[in-house]
Design brief:
The structure is a homohexamer. Chain A is mainly alpha-helical. The first copy, chain A, is 42% helix and 4% strand. Chains C and D meet through β1, α2, α3, α5 and α8 of C and β1, α2, α3, α5 and α8 of D. β1 of chain E pairs antiparallel with β1 (2-4) of chain F, so a sheet runs across the interface.
Chain lengths: 313, 313, 313, 313, 313, 313
């Protein structure tokens, strides 16, 4: 069973909107090696897990839970990169089609017009070429060794693609998120490689993949200096055996150590997204808005829902 | 950010394996109106939410969080229905192909042979016709009224399909889960209908869809008698405004009242799935198993990970 | 602009339900060479037609209009073959899940469970393997010669597949429709081959494809004896140049002559489909039914809509 | 059974070619909420219709027939927007590759190169991101209430997307068609909402969706002033019960009245598309052209096909 | 550039037709981890290869060339398993629909009716659930380490699935081919693992995946006894550096040695497939057959094409 | 069984990188009428071939073998057009993200960002709109006449599309390959048309399709002057009956003659692709490179693999 808090796993950094950067980042969300796949692959593997290897289950599932928060983070980042994009190339935006103007003229030229026609300048479950995410991406073989190796390939490919995306834009909103994901993908590589190490494999100098010192990217360096590329979190309220695997020397064999924590050391506020009248979003006219507003008032004395903590123990 | 506890939202009931019932239930997991879609649709809508209608956001997202637990429940149910299915039509199973026997002969005749060739008698992210789940199922329009109406259609179609699946098998494993989902889909219909009611719509006698007293199904009746078709949970650790909408008389206009809770009143143990040597799952031979077992021993003095509660406040 | 009359282009013949025959026939509806493709391919070719070859345009479009009626016919046939199928293997059907029975138990074993879970024992826009119809099936090259040749291949493949389906069942409902489509596909082969003949090609003894005397099938023979495999209809209210091409000796070079008509010599009643409570279809409970019924009464004095004929001339 | 006249439901307005506007408009044709879906969804719902609610059947099917004419209109519009586009950015077009020049150099930079490589500057059955139309878009649940609600969501989403597309271009060809579709989608919203009203729902101020006075768009205003957003046509040659539902006050509750007509008050000529030698379209060289021309001559005395009117009564 | 000889890489063994075994084997041909993917993945990787690591290129491409022969072998095997299948359940086959009989009645009940409706009892480019093969299966990252690891996962998954398929049927036609593929997949695992070993990885006891002694399958044992699970062939007419990698001790660390050869030690005749009149295949009637036969006669004095050997040296 | 030599069927000509030309050319590789389809369609048709029409089998398969070499050629061409493209719009490339620069900034604006994010400036198995290749493109009907006609349509459409692509760019790398493919597609049109001629069809002046004298393109003229549009190669090491069909006057009826050869008169070197550090391709750091280099040294005395010629006779 799953729970949520209204916090992000990494902050959204402010910068100009950039629709083609948003589109490139879609690969990291809805691409074949993006976060929607890692999330679903690890969740399916843990739901279908066989046998008594609880430490392996907890490792796979723990990373899977984190990936939901990555989907949250990357969606918010894409939305932020798109938000206000009608003004991207300088045309001042006005209320919808006042007198028949075309305030979103630039939209039809963007990499994925669906960002403006279908979404409302928000993230979509598609990749950077506009293909919708597919369930066929999820590999869940039921063979532990193979699943671990497949997961290692998945994280490595994800990290490779994000290193490439990093080099495609200097936009700070994009880079803050991509840098975080590069560091976390490296941690996940360590996790699956360590699990295979426990089964006998010695990696020597092969890892990480790509074999590239990502601390040459300043945004990544700052995160790595904080150690997040060697930490893994359980996100499990009632305990986890993850640490039986994720501990000791990192399989990158670079002298670093692996650390298991219950959750990240910090959490970050979720920025609100403003209304976008040109997208009819949220699309409440004054009459409907008045009805909606009424919900927020006059109900101050609501008995608050009994706290989760009260029931789950 | 998301968390997990090792509990199910409804119990897995024991019965014989039944691969074609498992296949029918795949529609409820990976179908166009199944739980993978509800989960992703509501999460995307909440991540892309615009404006200050926090009560609406909390309602949509709260249901979205629940749907992750539904994906967990329905995956475990399908796995349970498939587990041991090589013995389904009476052929005793032996170790893999001893002397070249064909212990899984029945597998190639089943509705979806992928359950045996690709998965290891586990759930797949596909529908009952074998089509992989697609990102195109997710509707996230960014227009609040439209999204609420789309969600109502989604829950209604889900409930309709599950009522039909209920009538396709008397298998208790299947029915326990389907009955629960019928009741919960009805609660979710109430949620989105109530949100539209707040914007002026009067439903009179139209709801629920299908217009069918599901308490005629004994397994559903028991759950409804407990009230779960009129409850909604926030699953939010740090509070929610869901109750501003989900309260008062139900939009079914049948005299019932809506109740918001932090989480379900009960949680249930997650059954372990046994090894399946005929599927090479998990596939550790004695040498590898010895290495894996070593993880469970000699590390008893592990410092336990600091509790989540210590850091997230 | 398009119009409709409540008539079928061929009668629906009565026989037992047969879900696997219905599934085979789906290939003729939603398959890569089925009627949905012929309809969309010819309509797209006519909408995108370039140049002044009006006779070619009218030929392609006339056949395209007919294909909409084929989609109508084949959909009704599939629905008829599925209708009441819960009783197919002998289990008496009762009202939905009375006391929790499983009246549709056979449904989950059928070729495409979507016929029962998603549709309500009705036709679906998919092929016989359950794949949804795809826009990529439509070939519209904008090159007249190539489009005609592609259309000839399309009709030939359609006829080949229907000849195979004919041999898969003796069900009269299936065969009446399949026999009609075999005869009409042959007429359409003649049409496109004749258009190519006008551009110089001599077919000698190559046609029809497959090179098989389909009059060996009794149901087809009866139709061919009536001449429908050498007729083509314009379905055009305001005139057509189709006959400039579709006339004279047939390109099968078997002594037959081509005849252009405004529409088929006969039309047939559309059978109503009964309610299916086990599918919650149409799903009106007594309260809603009473509201629906009210529409049929008390409005007897409605001024009838002005006839189409009054306005379109 | 279906018929056609060589007229359009709205005129094609002349303006410059604009390939990216054409691409945006593809969403309205082959997108998940475009006209190909509305057409197929309503036709499937009417072919699979169960029970005796003839007024509901006639309403759904009548709109479905209209949608075929919308597919025709929008295809012609896209073709018009693409036609001659090689000259779009100023390069004068010459005969194909004379001396090896590249007259269509701009084509490979356009939003969907398929418009030039696959089509011949004509409409394609794809969406604005280049994904082919899919049969999975068609929802046909067989439950009347649910189908009506799904249809209302479909029309509302279609109208939302077209309002957004309107704001992306001031091209007159695009806007004339989009304005017409916005007005008609609103009429269709009224139709399905009214059908639900007949079953008890009161919409108060929720409709239309998006809640936006589209008469602020001048091209829409002109059409609305003519009343077409409150009319519905039966397109049925032999009568319809549509008017039993589509009459009385509009469910927008804005004082307007619903009017059922046999067909639109006006029809418009279909413009011919010129040859495009750079696309080899239609691609007849002088020899083949002479053969084709022969069809138009010397056959003046053809007995005209007997009029449809002669046989269908 | 590629060449062909009319020989198979493994013999087709005779047994009864078995359509559901054929369908299971489709996974090995057109599945996500089947031979169409291995073939295309390795060919794309070798065509896009960067840098001067010629030994790696030759290893990847050599295996890719072999996979074309695997596609040939597995296609012929599926066709053999399907051939004559209308008589599968005992109904004697007669010429097409004599008097309207249904000689292929069993066909519509088979796992994939496309084998009979679309193909003519021949192999299809689809998987065991009927999904068409997709280009998205091909992973070609351009990063050597990652591609090698991805290839190892691909071969391991292929071997796992084939071990499962082996256990689904005792049909000799199926097993001869599956046993061969299990042995070859193991050789390919060795190849990619050895290439990674050259880059520092030590596998210890992890390989092969699945960790299962496939010599317990008698058909596999016979092949392994012949050593083919430790051989790799270059299939390169003008030389290869493959042996620089594929030599020395096997990375399974079981005492075996790797051997590079130019091609397999033996080749096998390709069986002809008989005509299938019930499928209209090849579908030449007596007139057309006479024309076809004329090609084989009276042209005995044809100057034979100059031998390939004459030109390529 | 298949073999390979390290030669190309046509040379790669040097010119500037041009990513949008590369993207257009993807249609010729992974499009519905591209070389991946021709290759797979003819191979499947030959593997599933029925009956004793060996000359037809050899014709179809011989062209199929050639198509593998076309896939090789076109892949190398696309890679060449993409290679170094980060400098395409003038920005000097540096090592990956030195100090966080964005050396691949232009990449996210290109037609298909996958060329840079997923591939490493290499060819992908997708079309010009980014859709992955699909197995549903392969038509293999098992009816000889129909398959030949389908193949003729396939080659004609391929030639049409390539003539259009030719007109989209003057880039010499693109044009050298496209010109070759136009000429070869014409040869293949002749082959399938001739096979149909043997069955009685007379084409008169219909061919080639498009009816366009491609020798007006200088690059094509040069090839045609060399005669390659009337040659076909068997690529069969152990003999072929292709010449029984492919001989005599061409079905274009332009006075030319058909010539069957064992293989093309010339072969061309395969250019190496340089490393691309900005893509982490091949991605070996100094440590790994040293290990890789070791393979090339100290093994000079390797016994060379026994020549293919030694074993296959």
């Amino acid at each position: 069973m799953f729970y949520h808090i209204q916090k992000l796993i990494n902050p959204i950094v402010d910068d100009e909107p950039d629709p083609s950067a948003a589109n490139a980042l879609q690969e990291g969300l809805g691409g074949q090696f993006g976060e929607m796949r890692t999330m679903m692959q690890y969740l399916f593997q843990s739901f279908n897990f066989r046998g008594d290897g609880k430490a392996y289950l907890d490792l796979i599932q723990g990373i899977g839970i984190e990936e939901i928060s990555h989907v949250e983070l990357i969606s918010k980042t894409i939305s932020k990169l798109l938000d206000g994009a009608p003004g991207y190339k300088g045309k001042k935006f006005d209320v919808p089609g006042k007198g028949g103007e075309a305030p979103m003229e630039m939209a039809k030229e963007q990499k994925n017009p669906h960002h403006f026609i279908v979404g409302a300048q928000g993230a979509l479950p598609v990749d950077a070429a506009g293909n919708p995410w597919s369930g066929s991406y999820v590999h869940c073989n039921g063979n532990l060794v193979l699943d671990l190796l497949d997961n290692l390939v998945l994280e490595s490919t994800g990290r490779l693609q994000k290193c490439r995306i990093y080099q495609m834009s200097e936009n700070k909103t994009l880079r803050a998120t991509v840098a975080f994901l590069i560091a976390r993908d490296e941690a996940h590589e360590m996790a699956f490689a360590k699990a295979l190490e426990a089964l006998g494999v010695e990696w020597n100098k092969l890892l990480p993949i790509p074999k590239f010192d990502s601390s040459r990217y300043p945004e990544v360096k700052k995160l790595i200096d904080g150690g997040i590329n060697r930490e893994q979190y359980t996100f499990r309220i009632d305990g986890s055996d993850m640490e039986k695997i994720f501990r000791g020397s990192a399989p990158a064999n670079d002298g670093t150590q692996l650390v298991t924590l219950a959750e990240p050391r910090e959490k970050y506020d979720i920025p609100e997204a403003p209304e976008r009248p040109e997208e009819f979003s949220p699309g409440l006219d004054p009459e409907l808005q008045a009805l909606a507003d009424a919900l927020g008032e006059a109900k101050a004395k609501l008995k608050k829902p009994s706290k989760r903590e009260n029931t789950h123990r």
